[in-house]
User: Fold these one by one.
Assistant:
Number 1:
Amino acid sequence: SIITAIWFASHAMERFFLDQTATDLTDRITLVRYQIEPHFRPLQADRIDRICKEAGQLSSTRFTVILPDGTVVGDSQENPSHMDNHAGRPEIKAARQYGSGQSIRYSKTLDRRLMYVAVAVTVENELAGVVRAAFAVNALDERMGAIRWRMAGGGALIAILVGLISLLAARKISRPIERLKQGADAFAAGNLTDKLPLPETEELAGLAQAMNQMAARLDRRIASAIQQKNELETVLSSMREGVVAIDSSEAIMSMNPLAAEMFECDRERAKNRSIQEMVRNLALQNFVAKALKAGDSLEDDIAFFRQDEHILNIKSSPIVDSNEKRIGTLLVMTDVTRLRRLEHMRRDFVANVSHEIKTPLTAIKGYVETLYNREVDSSEDHNRFLGIVINHVTRLESIVEDLLALSRIERENFREALNLATVKLGNICQTAIQVCQKNAEAKRIAIDVQCGEDLQATVDATLLEQAIVNLLDNAIKYSEDGSRVEINAEKRDGMTAIHIRDYGCGIAQRNLSRLFERFYRVDKARSRQLGGTGLGLAIVKHIVQAHEGEVTVESRLGEGSTFSIYLP
Ligand code: ADP
C-alpha cells in the first residue's frame, strides 16, 4: 500500500511540477511574444534574434522563434542561421496545428532533458511563426528524486512501525492461542482436570472459559460413565450366572468372568469375535441363531464337555437400544449339572423304590389270595405259603427301615444333630460283631478284630455301629462258608481308619465306582436272595459323610474286598 501510495504521489507531484513549469514557460512566451509580434510583418530576423537573446539572458530561459516553414529566425543561445529546420519538432507541429504544443525530450547537444513549450504567433489572423521556450527539467528531476527518497524513507519508517505494531499485535493474539492449543492438546490427551489460563483478550477469554467448562463437563461425564461401568462390572462379576451379550452379527459384545469360565475362553480376547469362533459347540451356535431371530426369550439346556459333562441352562432375551431397535441378544447361563443329576437321581430313585416294593408286594398278594380262596389243600403248603409271605413282609420292612434310615441321615441339618461322644472304637466293633454273630455262625465265618485297647474317636456311636454292621453283614453275606472276616482299626496321620476285609467273591473293577449308589447291586438276584436291599452301602456312605469322613473300597474279583472308613 505504501509503495503504491508513494508511486502515485510522486507521479502526481511530477505531473504538477511539469504542468507548473509548462504554465510558467507559456507565461514567459506570452511576454516575449508581445515584443516579437511587430517584427514579423515585415520580417526583421535580427531584431527577433536580439529580443530572444536579451529575454533569454534575463529569464535564463532559452527562447527560439521559428517561422511557419520551420526556419529558425531567433534563438537565445545559438546563431539561427546555423540551426537546422525545426518544422518536424513535435511541439512546433502541435503549435501550428492547435495554437500551442509541448514536449519533453532529451537533448543530445546539451546532454540534458528539456521541456519545450511552443505557442503560435498570429498576425492579422495568419500564422506568422512560433515562439518556443525551453527549460532544462534536470533540476526538476533532481528535486523529484530528493522528494522520492524522502517519501521512500517515510514509507519505510511507516512500514517498519506498522510491521512492529503488527508483530506485537499478532504476538498478543497468537500467544494465548498457542496456549489454548496446548491446553486443548492436554484435554485431548485426557488431562481434563487441567485449567486453561484466561487470556486478556475478551474473545479468547470467552473461548478459554468455554473450553474449561467443556473439559469439566466431559470429566464429570467420563467419571460417571466409568462409575456406571464399574458398577455394572461389579454386578456382572458377582453374579452367579454367566452373562454374554451378543450383537446381531453373532459377535460377542461382552461377557462376565463366570461366562468366560463356563466357555473356557479369554474374556478380553473374546470381545468382538464371533461366538462360533470362541465357543465350539453346535447346540449353542444353533441356540444363538434361533435366539437372534426370535422376538421373545428362549430357554434350553445345553451340554458342554470340559473334563466331564456340564449342563448349562441358557436363557436368551433380546437387547434393544434406546430407539427400541433390536441390536442383539443377551444369554444368561446357569450351571445346572448338579441339579439335573439330582433330578435324574430322584427319578431313578423313585423308579427303584417302586420296583423294589412292587416285587414283594406282588408275591404277597399272590400268596395271600391263594390262601384266601382256600385253594391250598394241605396244611404243609399252607404253612409254606405263610412263610413266604412273612419273608417278603420282612424284606419290605427292611427296605422301609433302610429308606427311613437314609432319609434321616440325609436330612440337611443332620450333621448338627449328630450325637457326638468320645468312645472306644473297640466297644463299637464288639457290639457290631454281636449283631452279626448269628449270621456269621450260620456260615461258620470267623470274625477277627484288631483294635488297640485305647483307640478312641469322637463319633455318633449308634451310627458308626450301624455302618460297621452294614459292612460286616455284606462281608459275611458275600463270603463262602467257613471263610474269615477281619476288622482292623487304627489311627494314622490324625485319621481314624476302620478296615473290614473279607475273602469272599470280590467285586469287578468296573462296578466299584457305582457301589455306593442307592439300590445299586452287582448281582441283583443274589443280593435279593441274601435279603439285601441295595441300600446298605448308601447308608454307610451317608453316615461317614455326616462325620466328614470318607469310605473307600478295594476289591478283586474272586479274592475278596476291603472296605475302609476314614474319620477325621
Ligand atoms: P445289598 O443289600 O444288596 O448288599 P449294599 O448296598 O450293601 O446292598 O451293597 C451293594 C452291592 O455291593 C451288593 O449288592 C453287592 O453286589 C456288592 N457288595 C457289597 N459288599 C460286598 C462284599 N463285601 N463283597 C462282594 N460284593 C459286595
Number 2:
Amino acid sequence: MIETDFIPDTLNLDKDHGIVQYTSPSNIALIKYWGKLENQIPANPSISFTLNACSTTTKIEYVKLGKKASDFSFDLYFEGLPKEEFKPKITTFFKRIITYMPFLLEYRLSIHTSNTFPHSSGIASSASGMSALALCLMEMERSFTKNMTDDYFDRKASFLSRLGSGSACRSINGPLVQWGKSNFIESSSDLYGIPFPYDVHPIFNNFHDTILLVDKGEKQVSSTVGHDLMHGHPFAANRFKQADDNLGKIIGVLESGNIKEFINIVESEALTLHAMMMTSNPYFILMKPNTLSIINAIWEFRETSKTHVCFTLDAGANVHVLYPENEKDKVFSFIKEKLVPFCQNGQYICDQIGQGAKKK
Ligand code: DP6
C-alpha cells in the first residue's frame, strides 16, 4: 500500500456526536529503530515484542461543529486533569495526519487519556499514547465509513501512529510486530507495522519482560534529537545494514527457538543502540552506573544458573529483563534479590508479551 491509499474517498459525516475508546500497549524493540528520514520513514527495519501491562487508555468524545473550522478544536485531560503542555504535540500530530483524516476539522474533540504506568517512571509513553489516540481516530473514521475491513483499520491505525511516533506503529497488534521495508519480509513496509508473518517457536509464548526502573528523571537527550544525530553519523550506513542483517537472522531464530542466538542478537542490538549515542556528535550517554551493574549481574547469573535470561534497553537508563515462561520462578527470584536493589526506590514493572490494542 502507498500513502494515498490512506486518504478516505467518501465519508458520511451525518453523525453529530459519539464516544470512542481504546487501550493500546507499549512495545519493546528486539531490533532497534534508530535513525529516520523525512515523514517518519525509518532508516532501518525493526521488530518488537508487544507488551501487555504497560498501556495507555484513551477516550474521545466528539461533537460536530456548526461548520468546518480552520484550526483543530480539542481539550486534553491526562489522568482526569487538563494538560495544556501535551497539546502542542497533539496539534503537530493532527497537522501531520489531516490529509488522511480530513474530518478532524469538522468536530470538537474531548480527549481523556491515562497510563497504567507512573508518568514519571522514565517509561516512554509515546508508543502506547500515540497508538491509543490513532486507534480512537480510526474508530471515528469507521463510524463514518461503510464496510471498512479489519485489516485496513489496523494498517491505517499503524500508519497514523507512525506519524505520531515511529515506534508507536508497532503497538497495534501482537505478539511480534515488524516495521520497515526489508527483503527478508515481502509484505514489510516503511509506512506501517505488520504482525510478524512467520512461525514462532513456543519458547517465546508468554515471554516475560520485567522492566527495572533505574532512573526516572527526564532524559538529557530526547529520542527525536537522537534519531537526528544519525544524519552524518560515521557508522550510520553500517548500522542500518547491520539492523537489516539482524532481522534476517532473528526470523530464523524466532522460528527455531534458538534462544542462545536470540540472546546474542537482542543484547547486541541494545548495546549497539547505545554505542550509536556514544559515537554521535554531540555524543551522549543515557545508561547510568546501575544500568551497567544490572547488565553485569545478568551475565554472571546466566552463566552460573544456565538460564536464558537476557536484557535489552530502550533510549534511557532502564533495563528490560527478558526471559522465557518456563524459567520464570528462578529468574524472578534472582531479579528480586539481586537486581531490584539497583532500581530507583526499588521500583520495577512486571510485564509480558501481549496481543495488541483493544477496543473498550
Ligand atoms: C530506542 O519512536 O520514540 O525506542 O519516531 O521520534 O517518536 P520518534 O522516536 P521513538 O524512537 C524509539 C527508539 C527506540 C528503539 C525502538 O523502539 O525501536
Number 3:
Amino acid sequence: MKSHGVVTRVPGKVNLQLSVGPLGSDGFHEVTTVFQAISLFDDVTISEGVSKAGVTISVTGQTAHGVPADASNLAIRAANLMIKEYEIPADLEIKLKKEIPVAGGMAGGSADAAGVIVGLDSFYELGLSRDEMEKIASQIGSDVPFSISGGVAIGTGRGDQITPALAKGSYTWVLALSNQGLSTPAVYQECDRLREGLSIASPQVSEVLMQALRAGDAKALGKALSNDLQAAACSLRPALRLVLDVGIDYGALGGIVSGSGPTVAFLVSDEEHAMDLTVALSASGVVSSIARAVGPAHGARIIESF
Ligand code: ATP
C-alpha cells in the first residue's frame, strides 16, 4: 500500500570558497564556489493534502520565525514546479521543521526546496535521476542542486552546476548567528559598488583549498577559506568584523562569512576547541546566538515514510 507521506532531511551549507566574477549583462555574476554541507538540518514532511486546497505549508522549529507561509516559500515553488512537470496531484501538505538559520547565508530556503523535490520523487515513485532532480532544482535557485547532493562539491555557473569534490576528514564548525538576516541581492549589489572601476577576473577554484580538502588538513583549510562577498557583507553589517576578530583571537583555524552572510563560520580543531570558542563568543557580547555543527553532512535524504 502507498504510504501517507515522507519526511526528507536536508542540510545547511557553508561556502569554503566563494569567488564572484564580474556582473554579467544578464544581471547575474558567474561564481565558483566550494560548498560543504553541515549538520544543521531542516525536516520536510510531504503528504497528500485536502482536495482542492492546492499546496499548503506550515512552518515550525527553532528558526521558523520570519519564514513565509505562502506561495513565496521556496518549498511551495518547488512543489508547484514538480506538479507542472510530472503531473502529480496538485493538493499537497508540506510541513517544515526548521533548524537552519533564515536569511543567514546557509541556504535554508534552498534546502527546503531540495527536500520537496527529493520527497516528491520518492512519494510518487517518479524514479528521477540525480541529474533530472538537479535540473529542476536549478530553476528554483542557485543553491538548490547542492542541497540535493550534499557532501563537498564545487559549484560553477551561478553555483548551480555541481561537481562532487574529493575530500577527506570531518570538520568542526562554530557558527556565529545573527538575529537579523542579510538580503543576498543587497550583498551582491554592495559587492559591485565596492568593486566599481576595478577589473575583475573570471572566478577560479582555489588549488590550495582543494589540496587541503584532499589531505583532510583542517589547519590548511582554515587558512584557505575565502569569500569575495565578505567585504560587502561587512560593509553592510560592520559588526561582522568584530565577530571575525573575536573568533580569530580565540584561536579559530579560520573564520569566514558564509555565503552572503550574516552567519560567520569558524573552523575549529575539535569539540573541545568548539566549546572554548562558543564560550568566548558568548562572553564577547557581539553574537546573538551560536550553533555548532560538523561537515560534511549528507544531502537531502528520506528519513521516514509513514
Ligand atoms: P542563500 O545562502 O541561499 O543565499 P540564505 O540562507 O541567506 O540563502 P534563506 O534562509 O534561504 O537565506 O532565506 C532567504 C529569504 O527567503 C528569507 O528571508 C525568506 O523570506 C525567504 N524564504 C522563502 N522560503 C523559505 C524557506 N523555506 N525557509 C527560509 N526562508 C525562506
Number 4:
Amino acid sequence: MKFFIDTANLDQIREAQNLGILDGVTTNPSLMAKEGISGKAAIMQHYKTICEIVDGDISAEVLSTTYDEMIKEGEELAAIHPNIVVKIPMIKDGLKVLKYFSDNGIRTNCTLIFSSGQALLAAKAGANYVSPFLGRLDDVSTDGLNLIEEIRRIYDNYMFETEILAASIRNSMHIINCAKLGADVITSPLAPILSLLNHPLTDKGLEQFIADSKKMI
Ligand code: G3P
C-alpha cells in the first residue's frame, strides 16, 4: 500500500518525506488556501517545490469546472513536472476530461468520490486514481469503509487498473482498515501516519531494555 500525505504544508511534507515511507502528496484547493497560496504563479511554484521535495505522484487539483477550462488548466499543471497527477472533480464535464486526459497521456485523480457508481464511471473513463472521501462519509453517519470495500470488489471483478486512493483519512484506524480492505493508497494528514508508530507496550518495553542495558555496561 502506498502512503501519500494530504497537505500543502511544506514542513509537514518534508517531515513525512524524512520518515522514508512517503510515496506521494495530495493537495486540494482548501489545503492550498490554508497555506496562504494565491495567484497562478504562486500556485505553480508551490507544486514545483513539492515535486522537488518528494519523488512520487503529486496531485494538483484544477480550480475550474467546465470542460474547456479544466483541459487548459490540467495541461498547464501537468507541464510543471512529470510526477504531477491532475485532480479532477467527479462531475459530468470532469468525466469527459478524465477520458480526454487518459487518451492523451496525462495522469488523473478523480476526486470527491462518495459512491461506488461514481468510482465505476471514473474507472471507465480511465482515471489513474479515484479518491473516495472516508471521513466526510463518516461525518454524515455513513460508513466510509463500506465504500472502499465496494469499489475494491467492483474494480477486482473487471480488473480495472484505476488505483483506490482512500482520502479524507482522520485517524490511524482508517489507515489500518483501508489496508485490510485492499486500498491501493491512503492519503492522510501527518498526525494519523505518526500515530501508527505508537504503542504503550513499545514504550514500556523500551524503558525496561534501557534500564537493563545499564546493568550490562
Ligand atoms: O484531499 C481530499 C481529502 O483528503 C480531504 O479530507 O479531511 O477535508 O475531509 P478532509
